[in-house]
Amino acid sequence: MRGKTHNAASLFAAAIVFSFLNIDHKLMLLIGLFLGGYFPDIDIDTAKISKIFKDTSKVIRTFFGHREAFHSLLFPVAVYAAILIALPEALPFARGFLLGVVIHLFLDSFNKKGVPWLWPSKILRVRGPFKSDGVADTFLTTVFTFGAILVFAMSFF
Ligand SMILES: [Zn+2]
């Protein structure tokens, strides 16, 4: 899926978190959520996050390729565990980051290239029928954006 679709999905999830969940440190969670929604695409050169972190992205692409290690649960779970151990006060960020990555991987699982959820194992590579930047992207971006607006609006009534 393209960046706009992931961004719209993060916005929709943020609307739900912001409107309906009564939890502390929502802002830290939302920052993690949006970062997690973008992060996996650091393994493709055309993504916005890759343009910001050019050298890091290049190293990741060279060693891991696109839709491999950085499109799996390995990295976000490692980040979550590291924060849990070393910086527990940032746990809301880690929860948001993990949620953002999982939503990203879920959406990319509908693409033809698929997602290796349990990389380096190949037992759970989930693929779908849609190509990136196609009709499914446009449809989902529209649904998530209007869904976010609707959820925000509902929270005021
Ligand atoms: Zn992706």
Structure description:
- The chain is mostly helical and 157 residues long.
- It has one domain (3-155).
- The protein has helices at 3-20, 26-38, 48-52, 54-64, 74-86, 91-108, 135-155; strands at 115-116, 125-126.
- Helix 2 (26-38) packs parallel to helix 6.
- The model has no long low-confidence stretch (mean pLDDT 92).
- Zinc ion (ZN) binds next to helix 6.
Question: What are the salient characteristics of this protein?
Answer:
mainly alpha; binds zinc ion; globular; two-stranded antiparallel ribbon; 63% helix
The main sheet orders its strands as: 1-2
Global geometry: globular
Radius of gyration: 16 Å
Q: Helical content, roughly?
A: 55-70%
Would you list the SSEs in sequence order as H and E? HHHHHHEEH
β-sheet strand percentage: under 5%
* Structural category: mainly alpha
Q: What small molecules are bound in this structure? A: zinc ion
Please report the distance between the alpha carbons of the first and last residues: 33 Å
**Largest sheet composition:** 2 strands, antiparallel
